[in-house]
Design a protein that fits this description.
- With 251 residues, the protein is α+β, with helices and mostly antiparallel strands.
- It folds into 2 domains: 10-74, Orthogonal Bundle (Arc Repressor Mutant, subunit A), CATH 1.10.10.10; 78-247, GAF domain (Beta-Lactamase).
- Helix content is 45%, strand content 21%.
- The protein has helices spanning 10-19, 30-37, 41-53, 69-77, 80-99, 141-148, 152-161, 171-184, 226-247, and strands at 27-28, 57-60, 64-67, 102-109, 112-119, 134-136, 187-190, 197-205, 211-220.
- It has a 6-stranded antiparallel β-sheet, with helices on both faces.
- Strand 2 and strand 3 form a beta hairpin.
- The longest helix is centred in the C-terminal third of the chain and has 22 residues, at 226-247.
- InterPro entries: GAF-like_dom_sf, HTH_MetabolicPath_Reg, Tscrpt_reg_IclR_C, Tscrpt_reg_IclR_N, WH-like_DNA-bd_sf, WH_DNA-bd_sf.
- One of its GO terms (molecular function) is DNA binding.
- Keywords: DNA-binding, Transcription, Transcription regulation.
- Residues 8-69 form the HTH iclR-type domain.
Length: 251
């Protein structure tokens, strides 16, 4: 793969262009796209033109550049996340109908939880989780549920490098949080992301009993019904795990 004068490969530069779009921003002027990707304007213009030829990028109104529908199509066509969402959505909808509050589905990505699906309704409490958005493991009930289900070596490695940017908690606090979650089989965090909400999540296991995802809810702090919510989430998690096994392609 040909390199630029800076040593970057074409793939490096393409990734930088695609990553330049911030969360919630659907289009950017070419000059801003070049600046955010750290590329000279001429290089950015050339890459954008080439990616547009494959419909991975498109021209937006006002001469701006936006992510192309073709890229969305390719990403979603064979992604394992598509299988997870297909298995989870009916169970998420059941929880959503019963609680009339936010329901989230997340997977572990490094030291973050990446949310791959969310169901919300007008009038429900604030939910900071967004589809394709991330949160640090330690401030999300889904993140804690996910990490508490990982092998001990993975947990120890995470705790060894843990640092809270806000400086509110240390690794020992998170270690206790993970241990409590593992013992109970669910994670709960009250007022961490939003002072008026309570996050509750349980891990989802595959056929090999590996924790592969977490399903959680965000409910008003004053209306927490742990004795009702946790059993419902556990039932949903088991159902999703069974569906994952049924939908998984045969080797």
């Amino acid at each position: 793969m040909a390199n630029s004068s800076s040593g970057d490969s074409v793939v490096d530069r393409v990734v930088r262009v695609l990553e330049a779009f911030p969360e919630g921003v659907s289009s950017l002027p070419l000059t801003e796209l070049a600046e955010r990707s750290g590329l000279p304007l001429t290089s950015a213009h050339r890459l954008v033109r080439q990616l547009a030829d494959y419909r991975l990028l498109e021209q937006a109104p006002g001469g701006k550049v936006q992510v192309g529908l073709r890229l969305w199509e390719l990403v979603n066509r064979n992604s394992p996340i598509l299988l997870l969402r297909q298995a989870a959505l009916p169970f998420m909808d059941d929880i959503h109908q019963v609680l009339n509050q936010n329901v989230n589905l997340g997977v572990l990505q490094g030291d973050d939880v990446l949310f791959v699906e969310r169901l919300s309704r007008r009038g429900s409490v604030a939910n900071r989780a967004k589809v394709a958005g991330r949160m640090p493991v330690h401030i999300s009930s889904a993140g804690v549920a996910l990490m508490s289900g990982q092998p001990r070596a993975a947990q120890n490695a995470y705790l060894a490098r843990f640092k809270d940017p806000a400086g509110k908690v240390d690794a020992d606090h998170v270690r206790r949080l993970l241990a409590t979650s593992a013992e109970r089989g669910y994670a709960e965090l009250a007022g961490v992301v939003d002072p008026e909400t309570w996050g509750i999540a349980v891990p989802i296991e595959d056929r090999q009993r590996r924790t592969v995802a977490a399903i959680g809810v965000v409910v008003p702090l004053a209306e927490v019904r742990i004795h009702q919510i946790v059993p419902a989430l556990r039932t949903a998690a088991r159902g999703i795990g069974r569906q994952l096994g049924a939908l998984a392609p045969t080797p």
